[in-house]
Amino acid sequence: MSNLSINQASKLFKVSRNTVYARIKKGEMTKNSDGTVSAQDMIRLFGNKTDKKAIEQAITEQLNSTAKIEQIIEQPKNNNEQLLEQQVEQLKAHVEQLEKQLEYVKANEAWLKQQLDQKLIEHKNHEKKGLLGRLFG
After folding, report:
1. 52-73 burial, b for 16+ CB within 10 Å, e for fewer?
2. Which pLDDT value is given to residue 122?
3. Whole-model pTM?
4. Residues of the chain below pLDDT 70
5. Contact, 45 vs 56, CB < 8 A?
6. Topology annotation, domain 3-84
7. Nearest to 9 by CA among 66, 51, 58
């Protein structure tokens, strides 16, 4: 079956919390690490004081509400995952665009260097002439 908090167990089985703690202390039932007790132990110990159908119905309702809560929790997770996946795709597209821009800039840089080298070569071809060379040459 399921586990119940001590408050829920005391309300369902119409016993005080102190009674539940006393039974735990005596070792007649155990408390889990998360602070819950087994519904089976509660039925075994206190089932004769209450209507078993009402208890089973309450436990079933609790299990159903827990399942609904888990579904509600899962929906935002799925929505968040989808949103994150969309953002990742957008970022990938942006990275690709930036890589293309970088390639274009590198190509321009290479072209400009080539143009600069040609200008330097052309500039070197024009040697300075002396006065006589300018006059006669």
Report:
1. eeebeebbeebeeeeeeeeeee
2. 65
3. 0.39
4. 1, 48-55, 121-127, 137
5. no
6. Multidrug-efflux Transporter Regulator; Chain: A; Domain 2 (1.10.1660)
7. 58
CA distance 10 to 19: 8
Spatial CB neighbours of 130, under 8 Å, sequence gap ≥ 6: none
- H or E stretch at 38: strand 36-38
Residue partners of 114: CB distance under 8 A and separation at least 6: none
CA dist., res. 68 & res. 44, Å (int): 28
Integer Cα distance of 31 and 18 in angstroms: 13
Q: For the chain, what is the radius of gyration of the CA atoms?
A: 41
CA distance 89 to 23: 58
Instruction: Quote the CA–CA distance of 34 and 11 in Å, as a whole number.
Output: 19
The CA-based diameter of the chain, rounded to the nearest angstrom, is: 131
Give me the pLDDT at residue 55, please. Answer: 66
pLDDT of residue 50: 52
**Alpha-carbon gap, residue 107 to 110, rounded angstroms:** 5
Segments making up each domain of the chain, as ranges: 3-84
